[in-house]
TrEMBL record:
Lineage: superkingdom: Bacteria
Organism, as annotated: Leadbetterella byssophila (strain DSM 17132 / JCM 16389 / KACC 11308 / NBRC 106382 / 4M15)
Beta-lactamase-related domain mapped to chain residues: 22-305
Cited Pfam families: Beta-lactamase
InterPro entries: Beta-lactam-related, Beta-lactam/transpept-like, Diverse_Enzym_Activities
Protein's recorded name: Beta-lactamase
Length: 320
């Protein structure tokens, strides 16, 4: 394993101060690593929306194991007790796929964090925010809205999200299972966000883990997840998630402006896809280069673009 150049280290120390850890895997082997002075090698960091892409894998596993029959199943079929207003024209037509592609319709424009986080069951609250007058198919990126996926997965598997992920994803990849951390107040939310070093996964007061944020992972955990997808769902000779799901989830299904989106994964080009989390967390995978890059970062607002950093300051400089 080689060291990053002094030039790259200087760039990191001046312009990317919130990066805690960076690791590059080329041809299945770690080629470069970097850790900030105050960071431990295996420190778990809140990776924000990278959680979404991890959850996409869990949905793929649930499909393969027939817990979920199809992503075209109607969302309301899982919630027979839900009362639908006659004014809510779209809710009955929404499918699981619409949650995965961010094309579901919602009754809100901006994320209603306070409204959802003040309840006991975030998934049920998010469910009641689905639908409205906007047409299905328009891209609406949301963290709160896809909490419905957590409710569906728990209901179909009859397992806690964390337990399901531990059994079918974390343990096979030798990722230390996170502790479930219920968020039951504004204070516990901010305590979670500000906790730079922990091994946890946020959950609502009932213990249902989040699907759109809240997972803490190390930079090596990110590499493993990226490598799993680079290897078409295979890990040490065993299938963790089907190759069909890997392909489908990293294929373009919707667009945010001109940016392609798969099933909770961002599509950068025909060979490259990424899991991207607020603050500068990323799993970057390039199939043709047999390359995986993981970066974990402490949250800062308006962090510098990690894709620009990777494609202009890592790949060409190190001939990756």
């Amino acid at each position: 394993m080689s060291k990053l150049s002094d030039q790259t280290l200087e760039l990191l120390s001046k312009e990317y101060l919130n990066i805690s850890g960076l690791a590059i895997a080329k041809d299945g082997k770690i080629a470069y690593e970097y850790f900030a002075r105050d960071s431990e090698k295996d420190a778990k960091i809140h990776v924000a929306s990278v959680t979404k892409s991890v959850f996409s894998i869990l949905v793929g596993i649930a499909l393969e194991k027939q817990y979920i029959k199809s992503i075209h199943e109607k969302i309301i079929s899982y919630f027979p007790d839900l009362k639908i207003s006659s004014r809510n024209k779209t809710l009955s037509q929404l499918e699981i796929k619409h949650l995965l592609t961010m094309t579901a319709s919602y009754k809100f424009r901006s994320e209603p964090y306070s409204k959802v986080f003040s309840t006991q069951n975030w998934g049920w609250t998010a469910l009641q925010l689905l639908g409205g007058i906007k047409p299905i198919g328009e891209f609406h990126y949301t963290t709160i809205g896809i909490q419905v996926l957590s409710s569906i997965l728990e209901q179909t598997t009859q397992m806690n999200i964390n337990a399901f992920a531990t059994k079918y994803l974390f343990t096979p990849l030798r990722i230390i299972p996170p502790e479930t951390l219920p968020i039951d107040s504004r204070e516990t939310y901010f305590k979670f966000i500000k906790n730079h070093y922990s091994n946890g996964w946020a959950a609502d007061p009932q213990g249902t883990n989040t699907s759109g944020w809240g997972l803490m992972l190390s930079v090596h955990d990110l590499l493993k997840i990226g490598q799993l997808y680079l290897q078409n769902g295979q890990w040490e000779g065993k299938s963790i998630v089907s190759s069909q799901w890997v392909e489908e989830s990293t294929t373009t299904h919707s667009f945010w402006e001109n940016k392609p989106y798969g099933y909770l994964w961002w599509i950068l080009d025909d060979e490259t896809f990424a899991a991207i989390g607020d603050g500068g967390n990323i799993i970057y995978v390039n199939r043709s280069k047999n390359l995986v890059i993981g970066i974990v970062s402490h949250f800062v607002p308006r962090s510098k673009d990690r894709i620009d950093f990777i494609e202009n300051h890592l790949i060409p400089v190190y001939n990756l």
